[in-house]
Amino acid sequence: MKLTKKIFALLALVFALVAVTACSSNSSSGKSTAKARTIEEIKKSGELRIAVFADKKPFGYVDNKGAYQGYDIELGNRLAKDLGVKPKYVSVDAANRAEFLISNKVDITLANFTVTDERKKQVDFALPYMKVSIGVVSPKDKVIKDVKELEGKTLIVTKGTTAETYFEKNYPNIKLQKYDQYSDAYQALLDGRGDAFSTDNTEVLAWALENKGYEVGITSLGDPDTIAPAVQKGNKELLDFINKDIKKLGEENFFHKDYEKTLHPTYGDAANADDLVVEGGEVK
């Protein structure tokens, strides 16, 4: 009898260890079971947690007073207002934008998130609010105007971006120098640690306009993409709210007004709002 009890106790211990190991495996692989908050829970908390960039002017950045500003921030402010809560901005890097949703650290990601088939496997995207493609910026005295000119040179990219994926897939012979943060990547270009830097054309264009001596020699690579808000996979309630709100904002011409306030001061005549902005979620 005592032996039987010992056997059952041993089996129980084994099953417990297996369960712990399984949980650890799911956690280490990034597959968190943390469930997204409902809209009711968001309203009860009084805050909408939004993942944004803190170093990506003019899309998402922290100003000299410590306040978040930019094109994405204007949308975040409005979404929170229409939910009847305050926005709580959470700074993210390009590589962990999806993970912050998966682990329920944020409710929405607005960190200039380009829609791709691979990312659709991890998160659910709402309607788009911007159009974008890949660009390359380099020093004017050694400007790169063709991808072939990058062969034998070092291209700076930020981890977790469409530029990183694009060059790894289509130009594996081009040496990539990778950084976690955009600010570090741009600093590497300024320091001469690489020959050029690639990310969304909207970003490199804005950066080149503010940093004399640099030029966007390649303005568009690959197929044009869209940028959209993202929520945790399966969070249909919040997704439906965002889509409805984006359609309503389109009727107000919200995103063109957002462009004039946040992007036009940087781009000036170098860009056309209609080439970048998507109103009401309808790409034209």
UniProtKB/TrEMBL annotation:
Gene Ontology MF term list: ligand-gated monoatomic ion channel activity
Listed GO CC annotations: cell envelope; membrane
Alphabetized Pfam families for the sequence: SBP_bac_3
InterPro entries named among the record's database cross-references: Iontro_rcpt_C, SBP_3_CS, Solute-binding_3/MltF_N
Record keywords: Signal
Signal peptide range in chain numbering: 1-21
Domain of life: Bacteria
Stored CDD domains: PBP2_Cysteine (cd13694)
Domain Solute-binding protein family 3/N-terminal: 47-265
Major location (coarse): other
Gene3D superfamilies registered for this protein in UniProt: Periplasmic binding protein-like II (3.40.190.10)
Residues of the Ionotropic glutamate receptor C-terminal domain: 47-265
Subcellular location: Cell envelope
Family of this protein: Belongs to the bacterial solute-binding protein 3 family.
Name of the protein: ABC transporter, substrate-binding protein, family 3
Protein's organism: Streptococcus vestibularis F0396
Lineage of source species: Bacteria, Bacillati, Bacillota, Bacilli, Lactobacillales
